[in-house]
């Protein structure tokens, strides 16, 4: 009897070890995005999802244990001047990297991956042993002709384990794995969104700085015009109305300058907000590949945002004694350092890359796999389940004591509800259809979204050279109007119209370059490219 019990114990332990190895088994599938079957191992090996998650944590430095409340820097009224050496220059790539390291939304996405990954462990736990322990006391009192009683006390411990359920648990493990991969792709899409928002706000700062150049130049021109009008009026060459109009236009130019400074402040705040900037030290931006207007002293501009720069220049005269507004203007001022480089990619290449890279499309495809595995798990409820158990106990009563050891293997289907399983299957099939339709919707949306963004970018590529020519033409027209006004061949209204057209052409050119950069980044985001 002892030998038989020993053999049964060894048999159960062997079966237990073999069943544990099934914990790591994944069904073979011919599907393209199915998880590959790893080799059997007695150790808990990390799968690809776990490795990806750990890599993402190291790159973004976001760990659950390190989450703490952020302390924001104080708001400084009347910011003092800061030494230029203390104001770092941050490129667009450095701003993006800062945002990826500090944006708490990405920490939320990583926590969702952790939560999804825990579902893998929960599904695998079906193969884990289950422990039982019980202490008991019984008193049996028998009445009748012969009275008797019996007291007994004892305890027993046991271990049981599900050995195989014919793929039901395997389907649940696959569900959890696909759900984790879907969460990882959602994280990648959140990264794309963070990068896009930072870049757009960076371009807004560059645009505000370029516009500020135009406004400051206009103040200089209007100041010179006012000084010239007064001088010519005093000499009897112009009427009083020209002096009044010049003074009004100078006031308008200064108002525009104040509004431009406000726009710059707002753009900087928006950029820092999108970066979740947490430093007291300010920074300045620099040119990008296709946004190259910066050439003035932008450190001074950022340091003195709260001050209106009083621009005043002495009256300048030509060799012939003419006072010209355009004498102090650098020709093609806003475009002299700008180099435009169109992006050489075809529409078909853009669409193909989007279908390959878009993380939200990949996430939807993973959800299809989740629903397929869920349907398998539902249908496999009809399959039996093999369990093994090992129990040892000790019982003591009035006359004897015992300590039996029990080993058993059971196979059964448990309690089935065919009617309920039928409707669960119907529900699972419906959810699978929903997931497949979501994939088709995403593919269609991406297909047309990429084409629309591509066409918009190409249209702006063709528009920018034309805007460049317009700036040159309006500057030349302003120079001619300025010269004619100086010798009395036209009136003040014609001069101001020429100046307004020149300023508007410059502002429109900056806006076109900004819109092009936004369109390009929008296309990159729609393609799933960082």
Using only CA atoms, what is the Rg?
38 Å
Total strands? 5
How many DSSP helices?
Answer: 11
Distance between the termini: 71 Å
Helix content: 55-70%
| Low-pLDDT runs | 21-53, 78-84
* H-E string: HHHHEEHHHHHEEEHH
Report the sheet-strand fraction. 5-15%
Instruction: Give the class from helix and strand content and strand pairing.
Output: alpha+beta
Biggest sheet statistics: 5 strands, antiparallel
Can you give a write-up of this model?
It is a single chain. By secondary structure, this protein is an alpha+beta fold. The protein is built from 11 helices and 5 strands, in the order ααααββαααααβββαα. Helix 5 (168-234) packs antiparallel against helix 11 (492-527). It is elongated, with a radius of gyration of 38 Å.
Features:
5-stranded antiparallel β-sheet; elongated; alpha+beta; 530 residues; 5 strands
Layout of helices and strands:
Elements: H1 2-21, H2 48-60, H3 92-102, H4 104-124, E1 130-142, E2 148-164, H5 168-234, H6 240-275, H7 298-303, H8 347-357, H9 359-379, E3 385-397, E4 401-402, E5 405-412, H10 418-486, H11 492-527
Antiparallel strand pairs: 1-2, 2-3, 3-4, 3-5
Helix pairs in contact: 2-4, 3-5, 4-5, 5-6, 5-9, 5-11, 8-10, 9-10, 10-11
């Amino acid at each position: 009897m002892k030998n038989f019990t020993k053999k049964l114990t060894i048999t159960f332990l062997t079966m237990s070890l073999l069943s544990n190895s099934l914990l790591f088994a994944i069904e073979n599938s011919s599907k393209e995005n199915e998880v590959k079957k790893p080799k059997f191992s007695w150790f808990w090996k990390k799968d690809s999802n776990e490795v990806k998650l750990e890599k993402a944590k190291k790159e973004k430095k976001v760990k659950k244990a390190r989450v703490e409340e952020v302390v924001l820097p104080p708001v400084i009224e009347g910011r003092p001047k800061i030494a230029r050496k203390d104001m770092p220059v941050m490129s667009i790539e450095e701003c993006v990297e800062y945002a990826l390291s500090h944006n708490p939304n990405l920490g939320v996405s990583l926590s969702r991956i952790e939560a999804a990954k825990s579902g893998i462990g929960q599904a695998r736990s079906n193969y884990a042993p289950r422990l039982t322990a019980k202490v008991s006391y019984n008193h049996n009192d028998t009445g009748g002709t012969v009275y008797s009683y019996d007291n007994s006390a004892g305890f027993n411990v046991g271990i049981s384990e599900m050995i195989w359920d014919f793929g039901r648990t395997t389907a649940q493990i696959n569900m959890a794995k696909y759900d984790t991969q879907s969460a990882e792709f959602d994280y990648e899409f959140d990264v794309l969104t963070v990068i896009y928002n930072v870049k757009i706000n960076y371009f807004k700062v560059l645009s505000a700085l370029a516009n500020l150049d135009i406004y400051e130049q206009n103040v200089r021109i209007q100041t010179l015009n006012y000084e010239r009008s007064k001088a010519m009026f005093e000499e009897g060459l112009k009427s009083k109305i020209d002096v009044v109009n010049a003074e009004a236009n100078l006031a308008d130019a200064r108002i525009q300058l104040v509004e431009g400074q406000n726009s710059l402040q707002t753009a900087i705040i928006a950029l820092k907000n999108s970066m979740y900037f947490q430093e007291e030290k300010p920074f300045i931006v620099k040119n990008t590949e296709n946004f190259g207007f910066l050439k003035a002293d932008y450190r001074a501009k950022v340091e003195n945002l709260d001050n209106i720069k009083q621009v005043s220049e002495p009256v300048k005269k030509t060799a012939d004694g003419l006072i010209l507004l355009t004498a102090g203007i650098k020709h093609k001022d806003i475009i002299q350092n700008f180099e435009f480089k169109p992006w050489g990619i075809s529409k078909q290449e853009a669409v193909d890359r989007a279908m390959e890279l878009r993380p939200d499309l990949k996430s939807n495809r993973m959800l299809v796999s989740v629903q397929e595995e869920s349907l398998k798990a539902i249908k496999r409820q009809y399959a039996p389940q093999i369990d093994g158990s090992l129990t040892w106990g000790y019982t003591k009563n009035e006359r004897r004591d015992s300590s039996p050891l029990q080993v058993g293997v059971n196979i059964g289907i448990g309690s089935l509800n065919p009617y309920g399983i039928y409707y669960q299957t119907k529900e699972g099939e419906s959810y699978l259809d929903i997931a497949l339709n979501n994939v088709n919707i995403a593919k269609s949306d991406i297909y047309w979204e990429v084409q629309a963004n591509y066409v918009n970018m190409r249209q702006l590529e063709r528009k920018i050279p034309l805007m460049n020519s317009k700036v040159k033409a309006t500057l030349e027209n302003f120079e001619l109007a300025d010269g004619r006004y100086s010798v009395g061949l036209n009136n003040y209204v014609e001069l101001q119209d020429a100046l307004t057209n020149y300023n508007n052409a410059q502002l429109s050119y900056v806006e076109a370059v900004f819109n092009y950069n936004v369109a390009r980044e929008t296309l990159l985001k729609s393609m799933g490219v960082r």
